[in-house]
């Protein structure tokens, strides 16, 4: 039976109370803080006997689940805390969604639910309050939106003046827009209307959507507070509340606004809280807002990195980062799938880096908090330029889902391991794989131990120089001034006078670590892909007379990017800008078979057989000697002079973002 909502226009007066930002004479009202959001909102006093009843339990366990054991939860690393939690579903059919939901799922070609969805679907459909904790990119959005659509379709239709039935609070406008797009895609089949309410955009269109009536409202706390204070909407019909990225909202200082908003919602609502971490602040929020809730953890309770991401850390000096970034981007842009996000620390550095890269032909765009909303939307659409390269501050580190991002580069290491995990989580979304590169400098020494913990948990190879920072507390790892150390050395023999990856396929790849075998936490070679990969590299080195403990003449630990002592002749062959190489049509070769699951940016080093006399041992047999001189000075007759830039002289005598002109093509 439809309930009465005759008081829907109550408290919609706009002339009561003082202006939000103080009195008309320019100061706050006596005894009140200037511009405190939510001051004009009063906590509702609900009479449960007068509130219309609503239904929120729509779940019937599928017969196939009665025989399901706890093995599925152990396999998917699902932990449940709380009583009465239903069993997880192993496919979408077992969740018994209505046909209009199943049709959209089939169109998306989803084969099976993710771990958080498998346990989240039955719990949300049963009407229980819940907390879901899982890593980024695990499918949390669908975990609450699909049950929300079912919930809405079992409620009375909206009437004039009614607010939304489902409210989703998100920390950033980008995440809110992303959730709204998913809500539109899955709700249009049942004519469910949704809107997105966020700051930085005109209020007019958002107000019109709310006044026309929407079942789902995705909002950032600040803008929603504005509309509630102005009487543009209300939350009297809200029975399904979602707090997405709750830990991030608390980090951003939204707790007072969240509490003001929740006070406007009836207490018998269904509340779902989603987070990547479980600090005490989030626990307190759950205790205050949720009743008899069930907590779901996927993976470790502490924040952990996605295991589908290959993490490579380059311990370097601050002044080396520009040069290393150029070399890294050259290799990435040679890949077929090369969509990249580069994270920097400040807005100014983001703008400066983007300006320099675009000046030299790199397809770079940037996003940060000072950008207008239309510009941020235009950049994130990715339709304006291909390939896509985005420079960003931490505004893009959480919740943002840019499709098909294959590489993340931490140009500046963040202030915490949590932010690091969220940054690299922009790649390898869902079940995809990705690669994250990080420049780690002595200035980041305080974060070294936490970074090692994250790498160990994800079973990643750990740079020996990073371990040295942790063990000794020093900012650097040996070597004098002007010496460029590396993280990974990849030696590529010459094939017909060419170097990989530009116009030849290497005969073999060798990987060596200074300081012995990399350290892992747990696991054996039989089920650890990193150890298996390293064993394969060691085996290949032994087969050609190499040594697994081989180091170069400087005793460095190698680098995934080529070292900074490249000669001018080599730079002339390889370091034209992306624009020049694209116009010249230079071909690339595929990554060898044994490299497909482990992405390493290789140094295109020539073998000692073609270097200057005394360049290396074993040149006649192609073996790897005890000392590897990767870079030998080229003959003077082959070196073309490059005019250095007076502003920024890089290690090769030219600006880190200024490349020598390409050689004239044979056709000309």
Portion of residues in beta strands equals 5-15%
Low-confidence stretches: 1-34, 474-526, 536-668
Please state how the strands of the largest beta sheet are arranged side by side: 1-8-2-7-6-3-5-4
How many helical stretches? 19
What does the radius of gyration come to? Answer: 29 Å
Mean pLDDT: 72
Q: Mind telling me the CATH superfamily name of the domain at 63-298?
A: P-loop containing nucleotide triphosphate hydrolases
How would a textbook summarize the main sheet?
8 strands, mixed
- CATH fold type of the domain at 63-298: Rossmann fold
Shape: globular
Amount of helix: 25-40%
What is the highest CATH level, the class of the domain at 63-298? Alpha Beta
Look at the helices and sheets and give the structural class: alpha/beta
Termini distance? 82 Å
What is the CATH-assigned architecture of the domain at 63-298? 3-Layer(aba) Sandwich
Q: How many distinct beta strands?
A: 18
Pfam family, one: Helicase_C
Biased composition (Low complexity): 546-561
Keywords: ATP-binding, Helicase, Hydrolase, Nucleotide-binding, RNA-binding
Domain Helicase C-terminal: 324-470
